[in-house]
Design a protein that fits this description.
Blueprint (H helix, E strand, L loop, with lengths): L2 E2 L5 E3 L4 E19 L11 E2 L5 E2 L2 E2 L5 E9 L9 E7 L17 E5 L5 E6 L8 E10 L2 E11 L3 H7 L5 H14 L57 E2 L76 H43 L1 H4 L1 H43 L24 E8 L8 E6 L5 E5 L11 H22 L5 E6 L10 H6 L9 H24 L14 E9 L5 H13 L5 E7 L12 H6 E4 L4 E5 L6 E6 L8 H16 L1
Parallel strand pairs: 1-10, 16-19, 16-20, 17-18, 18-19
Antiparallel strand pairs: 2-12, 3-4, 3-7, 3-8, 3-9, 5-6, 6-7, 8-11, 9-10, 11-12, 13-21, 14-15, 14-22, 21-22
Helix pairs in contact: 1-2, 3-5, 6-11, 8-9
């Protein structure tokens, strides 16, 4: 049971990796300071804040938001750090409340990686303070504890940082405020009905907002985090699993770590202009710059969003520009939907408040006056919702138009199987930067599909869940399992197709041989490195060879002797498909599989598991780390993925080959021919 702390109370922490979740009614800035045994912060490199969000052992948000998740890894914390102070501050921006006493008390909660709350603390009693030390993590006799602090500062971040013993506290506070201002356009505050959420374009984009060097980080379906070319860092390449078990660090998806956001302005912002809600890396002027001496008889073009163009994002290559554009569409849809939901919630809460006022007054509770007040409150609520829906529809129309232009222009690695680009497929000469795992959409925009792209090489293994909750809808018990295996085959075929010949191989473990028919496209084309391994001996043989390869490559890399690998060792990337886990696996095989899932991706061995987790229930918590290390996908649409910015539950749809299509066989035949020529 979670502990509810009061000011000054402490609580032990038994987990090495935790999250600190901050929730408030208004956007706040979250940060942390790392102090030594005496409680002093030695310099600015000991402060994690939106301008420098990552320090050893801790990562904070890059923007002001009403909800934050701070990641803490005590194992990665430097030995000299004995105290971590978690900071919350109100942003010094026009329109923001000046003190915590003017808003509801924020809450700080400590949770495990699965979301289970360990301890929570409501920061009550604040008044004139605009910055506060919410919690303190401290080391005591080799173990870590947490203390509820709640120490506020009316001087804001400057006073707080100075009290931490930090030299140059005022300069650092100004730097944090500037970083928050740059990221202001990313926040999704609650809005009133008259707030315009249409796609506004910035007057200009400075060169600082268009980095010339692309990042090698992940995607929002990193949920791995999108890289800095996409403008933000989530935790993996895009959305992350919303369920704790297969959860990604979301980080995706957030993919990698985005770079500095483009500057946006609001009606109350420094420049007095409207907020630009488009992706920071995809903003452009809505009209070309006027000539120095415009002809008086030529009218200026009307304002409005520019026609969509495929590949209009930043990047060195068309693939990179399309990748960044797709993730920009994903983030735009996430923010627009968040704005709509926030407006609907506001309309509902205001109507409830007005109705409560009517019911609390005996004079207006009954009779025509009460009915009129109720009707007026309901009419205002409907008006606000209609306005919010109209703004969302405008955004969806723009995104739909962009999708209709972008989707046909995608290369094979990003394209659906029904895209005509596959009919002209040729084996590539270099690996792509990402691959499509399926599509994502939200309930408010069901017709609009956003490609789910994940950076390559894969940083995590994949798990095709053959036991999703709606399995009862299938007429035969094995129908869903067969569909899960078809999903795995389609993914394996795509990975083979987008890599140059000889640089990617696939091996299959099918202990009972139950997947022979589903594996037929791979076996028939001859693109597998070996026939599917069956029986306990086959499982042991494949796992033993791959485990040995991981060991050898790791030793060579660590010793700086990559040229000393045994002759004939295949160093190409390998995908291991495991069907019907844990059938045919003994304890040793299970241990080897966990080892490959943890250590394999760094040295080119990737895992694709097709399994129902309930089948492995006999192992108890032994396999929990395995499930958590894999990105969970489903063979049927399922809303188990969450983006790392506003936490939407995205519906994932697998990238299956259309029924009756022979495109998979055609592509695999060309892959097999290229592999034969390569050898």
């Amino acid at each position: 049971m979670a502990a509810e702390l009061v000011r000054g109370q402490n609580h032990p922490l038994s987990q090495d990796r935790i999250e600190i979740r901050i929730s408030a009614d208004v956007p706040v800035v979250a940060g942390a300071t790392l102090a030594d045994e005496s409680g002093r912060v030695r310099g600015t490199d000991g402060v994690a804040h939106p301008g420098a969000p990552t320090l050893p052992g801790i990562e904070v948000s890059r923007q002001a938001a009403a909800e934050h998740r701070l990641a803490v890894d005590f194992d990665a914390m430097p030995a000299a750090v004995h105290r971590v102070s978690v900071l919350i501050a109100l942003p010094a921006t026009p329109g923001a409340p000046p003190r915590f006493g003017a808003v509801a008390a924020p809450r700080a909660a400590v949770t495990g990686l699965d979301g289970t709350e360990i301890a929570g603390y409501n920061l009550i009693g604040l008044d004139s303070e605009s910055a506060v030390v919410a919690l303190e993590l401290y080391r005591r006799q080799g173990a870590w504890k947490i203390r509820a602090v709640g120490q506020g500062y009316a001087e804001g971040l400057t006073g707080l940082l100075a009290d931490q013993g930090l030299p140059g506290a005022a300069e650092l506070a100004r730097g944090i405020e500037q970083a928050v201002a740059r990221g202001l356009a990313r926040a999704v505050p609650a809005r009133t009905a008259d707030t315009d959420r249409s796609w506004r374009t910035a007057a200009s984009v400075t060169g600082a907002d268009l980095p010339g060097t692309p990042s090698a980080a992940g995607s929002p379906y990193d949920a791995q985090a999108p890289d800095d070319t996409a403008g933000r860092r989530a935790t993996s390449d895009g959305p992350v699993e919303s369920e704790p078990t297969p959860g990604d660090a979301g980080r995706l998806p957030a993919s990698g770590g985005p770079g500095a956001p483009a500057t946006g302005t609001s009606s109350g912002g420094p420049t007095g202009g409207p907020i630009d809600y488009t992706h920071p890396k995809r903003r452009r002027t809505s009209r070309p710059p006027a000539p120095e001496t415009p002809a008086p008889e030529t009218p200026a073009p009307a304002d409005g969003p520019a026609p969509p163009v495929a590949g209009d994002a930043v990047g060195w290559s068309m693939d990179e520009r399309l990748y960044n554009q797709v993730w920009g569409m994903f983030e735009d849809l996430a923010r627009s939907t968040a704005a709509y939901r926030s407006a609907v919630d506001f309309a509902e809460s205001r109507m409830e408040k007005e109705l409560d006022q009517v019911l609390s007054d005996p004079r207006s509770r009954l009779g025509t006056a009460g009915d009129a007040a109720r009707e007026a409150a309901q009419a205002r609520q409907a008006q606000l919702v209609d306005q919010a829906r109209a703004a969302l529809d405008r955004d969806l129309a723009q995104l739909t138009a962009e999708s209709e232009v972008v989707e046909p222009a995608l290369p094979p690695a990003y394209a659906r199987w029904d895209n005509p680009v596959w009919h002209g497929y040729r084996v590539p000469t270099e690996s792509p930067m990402a691959v499509r795992l399926g599509d994502l959409h939200l309930p408010e925009s069901a017709p609009l599909r956003i490609p789910m792209l994940v950076r390559l090489p894969l940083e995590r293994g994949l798990w095709i869940d053959s036991g999703v909750p709606d399995a009862s809808l299938f007429e035969e018990a094995g129908e869903l399992r067969h569909l899960a295996l078809q999903t795995a085959v389609a993914l394996a075929a795509r990975l083979l197709a987008v890599h140059p010949a000889g640089e990617f191989g696939v091996q299959v473990v099918d202990p009972a041989g139950a997947g022979a028919s589903a594996f037929a496209p791979l076996t028939g084309a001859g693109v597998l490195d070996a026939p599917p391994a069956v029986g306990a001996a086959g499982v042991a043989g494949v796992l033993g060879r791959l485990t040995e390869r991981v060991d050898l490559v790791q030793m060579a890399v660590r010793g700086g002797a990559s040229d000393a690998l045994p002759p004939g060792l295949d160093t190409s990337r390998q995908l291991l498909i495991v069907h019907d886990f844990p059938h045919g696996f003994d304890d040793r095989a299970v241990t080897q599989l966990r080892y490959l899932a943890d250590e394999g991706p760094d040295v080119g061995v990737h895992l694709l598991l097709v399994a129902d987790r309930e089948d492995a229930a006999a192992y108890g918590p032994l396999l929990d780390p395995l499930w958590r290390s894999l990105m969970r996908l489903t063979p049927v649409p399922d809303d188990h993925l969450a983006d790392p910015w506003v936490g939407h539950a995205w519906t994932y749809e697998p990238g299956l080959v259309p029924p009756g299509s022979h495109v998979l066989q055609q592509v695999l035949a060309r892959v097999a021919t290229a592999r034969t020529k390569h050898t």
